[in-house]
């Protein structure tokens, strides 16, 4: 941080930011003052000082209340993010006072969360009760971005070699993923124990988010055949995909282990065929900026997650390339 940035940080007052957000949310200095239990004149003074510090107007003041200037809209976005981070920091630090001895922020894709993490993290929690894990589900590309930007200590996702933005991250093998085509028992393709995805292009598809690694793989496979995917609908979860397929709305592609878990919940009206395409065999990887510099709690979690896959435990981290 250069001297100008340090000076700016010292001049920004958190209380003033909180009051600014309150004024934006209530649309009035008077209502914000009531909500925050402070005199309206004090709120007005704080806002004037904030505008003076920033060197720009933040609010249009009128008889009915206030409206945001373009600079005010920008500050509101950053102020909310800053205040949220402070609340999160307070929450995490208070947990240390309550006996927590480590905190690991984990982002993972849906394949890892549905198939493997419940059991793996459950076992970890039972043997390391003093370490708290915050887990969030995101697309693989978002998982890598979060690790790269420091929003997550550890990621679990599919890391294709051509993914932009992966440069500079390290990866370790976690689990393998076999994609299958899921369909009703009476479907024309149901008799095939395995097939190429091209054979499914004549049928409606129930797909995941357009930016998911699975959907991107399907789209590329269709383009290679000079075809397009007959996408009938998109869903946000694998359980929803199975229910749509079960009700005759199309076929879908998902990891085999996830399908076996989902099938138990909806009965046995669905079947699957292994996809023979090269991209259908994937690896879910552990991702970090640098495994050797992770906090002790995060390194302990990495060791635990790697333990079930003993053939890979001796491998060194590899650099993910763009």
Explain this structure to me?
The chain is an alpha/beta fold and about 325 residues long. Helix content is about 45%, strand content about 20%. The chain has twelve helices and 13 strands. The chain has helices at about 5-10, 15-25, 30-35, 40-55, 70-95, 110-115, 115-125, 140-150, 215-225, 240-245, 255-265, 295-305, and strands at about 60, 65-70, 100-110, 130-135, 155-160, 170-185, 195, 205, 230-235, 250-255, 270-275, 280-290, 320. Strands 3, 4, 5, 6, 7, 10, 11, 12 and 13 form a nine-stranded mixed beta sheet that branches. It has a two-stranded antiparallel sheet with strand order 1-2. Strands 8-9 form a two-stranded parallel ribbon. Helix 9 (about 215-225) links the parallel strand 8 and strand 9. The protein is elongated and about 75 Å long. About 30% of the residues are buried. Residues about 310-315 have low confidence and may be disordered.
Features:
single chain; 322 residues; alpha/beta; 9-stranded mixed sheet; two-stranded antiparallel sheet; elongated
Outline the secondary-structure elements.
Elements: H1 3-11, H2 14-26, H3 29-36, H4 40-54, E1 59-62, E2 65-68, H5 70-97, E3 102-108, H6 110-115, H7 117-127, E4 131-137, H8 140-149, E5 154-158, E6 170-184, E7 194-195, E8 205-207, H9 213-224, E9 231-234, H10 238-246, E10 252-255, H11 256-266, E11 270-275, E12 281-288, H12 296-306, E13 318-319
Parallel strand pairs: 3-4, 3-5, 7-11, 8-9
Antiparallel strand pairs: 1-2, 5-12, 6-10, 6-11, 6-12, 6-13
Helix pairs in contact: 2-3, 2-4, 2-5, 3-4, 10-11
